Amino acid sequence: MIKVGIVGGTGYTGVELLRLLAVHPGVELTAITSRKEDGLPVADMFPSLRGRVNLAFSAPDKADLTQCDVVFFATPHGVAMAQAPALLAAGVKVIDLAADFRLKDRASFEKWYKIEHTAPDLIEEAVYGLPELNREDIKNARLIANPGCYPTTMQLGFMPLLKAGLIDAGNLIADAKSGVSGAGRKAEIGTLFSESSDNFKAYGVAGHRHTPETSAQLQRFTDQKVGLIFTPHLVPMIRGMHATLYARLTKEIDDAALQALFEAEYADAPFVDVMPFGSHPETRSTRGSNMLRLAVHRPDGGNTVVILVVQDNLVKGASGQAVQCMNLMFGFEETMGLEQIALLP
Ligand SMILES: NC(=O)C1=CN([C@@H]2O[C@H](COP(=O)(O)OP(=O)(O)OC[C@H]3O[C@@H](n4cnc5c(N)ncnc54)[C@H](OP(=O)(O)O)[C@@H]3O)[C@@H](O)[C@H]2O)C=CC1
Ligand SMILES: CC(=O)N[C@@H](CCC(=O)OP(=O)(O)O)C(=O)O
């Protein structure tokens, strides 16, 4: 059994980590922090965890995280970078669900997140926690930068096409929609029921911080300069993400070969489901599960490939992916504790 701590246990990704880790056979939860709820039993705040999590929240300065084997940061950007150096020095592995270590270019991080990086020495060491791209590096990592939810869909959709040199890398388009839980549990006008229900809108069209994250990662797979237009939208559902990705083919390939390319790429990826060519994945087929499903399309047999990608933003888009990384880092089966089937209807 490994000892696990969670910083930020009261937020949406924090409680999702608790849901997954409470029944993970290789894990003992030993510390869960909250600045505001020090001393409150976790199950008093989240009755879904009654009888499963018997700990109380502790204030961050009271929790002895150095006793843990691994600490997850389910916190806003900037928290993990302040605490990771001391934890790593004490031999504790760190998985950050925020963006502190996702961008290798410090200037780009500071531009997009508008905070100074206080642990720049760790940026190079951090491993980007997308197992389908970095499985071997994750196994040996001490520090994981867990990907953003939108970047997971975009990378897993575009990567096989880029690797095969089939598309114009300079003209990638991603039109993506997120459920409201993607914005976290903090109070914000835009996520009020009366603002976000029965409504649909784009945001961040002029530039979103997930564009540089996705472009930088995809750049590893092509010699062409990656150019990505990414438009996020907020949809009136609680969980779920749907990305529609467009790419222009630059080489001849038939539909069967295109499908075979994706199937071969993800043959050993337990959480990527390549659906039949031309099918229409639904977000509800992933709700509460760590599966990402995708389907390849080619409208009118032309030279535009459309990839449809769905996932649960809180599971494969955040906490499930973080547990998948933990499994790899500690030699557990990659799927351990992550085999939930999506909730229907
Ligand atoms: N929601 C999603 O779908 C996804 C989120 N992410 C990322 O995961 C991280 C967490 O997101 P989410 O769970 O949605 O956020 P929430 O706003 O729901 O939760 C944030 C948590 O962090 C704690 N917290 C806030 N500030 C501090 C601080 N300075 N020090 C210690 N703890 C703090 C809060 O607890 P308290 O106030 O009780 O201390 C709370 O538990 C973010 O970086 C987000 O960008 C990534 C992918 C998807
Ligand atoms: C719906 C919504 O607001 N979503 C968030 C993304 C959540 C997320 O994944 O944040 P990080 O990857 O940066 O950690 C947003 O667009 O800012």
TrEMBL record:
Q: Does the keyword Amino-acid biosynthesis apply?
A: yes
Catalytic activity field? N-acetyl-L-glutamate 5-semialdehyde + phosphate + NADP(+) = N-acetyl-L-glutamyl 5-phosphate + NADPH + H(+)
Alphabetical list of InterPro entries matching this protein: AGPR, AGPR_AS, AGPR_dimerisation_dom, AGPR_type-1, NAD(P)-bd_dom_sf, Semialdehyde_DH_NAD-bd
Q: Could you tell me what this protein is called?
A: N-acetyl-gamma-glutamyl-phosphate reductase
Instruction: State its location(s).
Output: Cytoplasm
Q: What is its main location?
A: cytoplasm
Q: Which organism is it from?
A: Massilia niabensis
Q: Name one GO molecular function term.
A: N-acetyl-gamma-glutamyl-phosphate reductase activity
The question of whether ATP-binding is a record keyword is answered with no
- Keywords on record: Amino-acid biosynthesis, Arginine biosynthesis, Cytoplasm, NADP, Oxidoreductase
Concerning its family, UniProt says: Belongs to the NAGSA dehydrogenase family. Type 1 subfamily.
> Which positions are catalytic residues?
149
One of the Pfam families matching this protein, by short name: Semialdhyde_dhC_1
Biological role stated in the UniProt entry: Catalyzes the NADPH-dependent reduction of N-acetyl-5-glutamyl phosphate to yield N-acetyl-L-glutamate 5-semialdehyde.
Pathway recorded for this protein: Amino-acid biosynthesis; L-arginine biosynthesis; N(2)-acetyl-L-ornithine from L-glutamate: step 3/4
In short, the EC number is 1.2.1.38
> Domain Semialdehyde dehydrogenase NAD-binding: where?
3-141
